Amino acid sequence: MDPFFYLVIAGGAIAGSSTGLLGVYIVGTRMPFIGVCISHAAMVGSIVGVLAGFNPVIGAVAVSIVTAMSLAAIGPSNPRLDINVGLSILFSLMLGLTFLGIGLVQDSRTELFALLWGSLLFVRKETVLLMALLGLALAVFAILFNKEMKVILFSRSLAAATGVHQGFVYCLFLALCGVTLAVNLNAIGGLMIFSLITNPAAAAYQVCRGHRSVVIVSTFLGALSAMGGFLLSFYLNLPTGACIVLFSTFLFGLAAGFRFLTGNKD
What is the pLDDT, as a whole number, of residue 224? Predict the structure, then answer.
């Protein structure tokens, strides 16, 4: 089999496991719109890079980090602005900028539409290596700040009241979230990556009780979703991004069905 096939599988596994791990915290805080906002910010940055003639990944990372930092200002410290309202406003801004940028491109828009839908077939060795390094950084963060993130998952207000440095840890998490989503954008696509943030973590929360088991299962299901979706698209000649979304949703359905059949109401 072509070595490129294994490169694609590796890229999908890394992208899926990274977003699955991110999803544990994003879904756990009940703010999945964070992933939507940052992934669309990455698309805006990529489009800016294409329009300005520099590497789209640089633009994606820069705009994602700026957006992530702005999200850190929305929360308990700003009681006049509900977190979900603020996220909705940012999402609408990023969505508008995305399609404005696409409209400004005069030449072929194939590259830009690839950012929307993504394709694991476009991954390169350098990209996979970068994805692996970021995945490792995210795993290290999850280990080092495990206690702080568990308190933040329960309540950011409580975390601040109990002396946990929730502001620093939360900002660092959002920055890692922004960089990770930006780098994985080309492989998964801005419109598809949201499913890998939400579905594996939601499935893990259905079948697991402890935080550690949720992290492990969500990371595994994220990798399985990406690899399973790619193999499905490869053998059936179907769009890769769509297959990843459908496969991850299928896995969530299995998890929800398992919880229902076992009568687990906790």
Answer: 93
Q: What is the pLDDT of residues 59-70, one digit of tens each?
A: 888 888 888 877
Taking phi first (over 0 means left), then psi (-120 to 50 degrees means alpha), and beta for anything else, what does residue 75 get? left
Buried/exposed 232-254: b ≥16 CB within 10 Å, e otherwise: bbbeeeebbbbbbbbbbbbbbee
Q: Report the pLDDT value the prediction gives residue 200, as an integer from 0 to 100.
A: 93
Q: Residue 38: which of 198, 225, 180 has the closest Cα?
A: 180
Residue type, 200: P
Classified as helix, coil or strand, 234 is: helix
Residues 88, 232: Cα–Cα separation, whole Å: 33
Which two tokens mark 8?
């694609």
pLDDT tens string 93-136: 888 888 888 777 766 565 666 666 666 656 677 778 888 888 89
What's 142's DSSP letter? H
Amino acid symbol at 204:
A
**In Å, what is the CA distance from 102 to each residue of 32, 47, 98?**
25, 7, 6
Query: Minimal CA–CA distance to 122: which of 196, 39, 15, 1?
Result: 15
Dihedral sign computed on CA atoms, order 36, 42, 45, 46: negative
* Digit-coded pLDDT (tens) for 208-238: 888 889 999 999 999 999 889 888 888 888 8
Show the tokens assigned to 265. 């109401």
The Cα 111–Cα 118 span in angstroms is 10
| Cα angle for residues 134, 54, 65 (degrees, 5° grid) | 40
SS3 45: helix
Dihedral pair phi/psi, residue 51, rounded to 5°: -65, -35
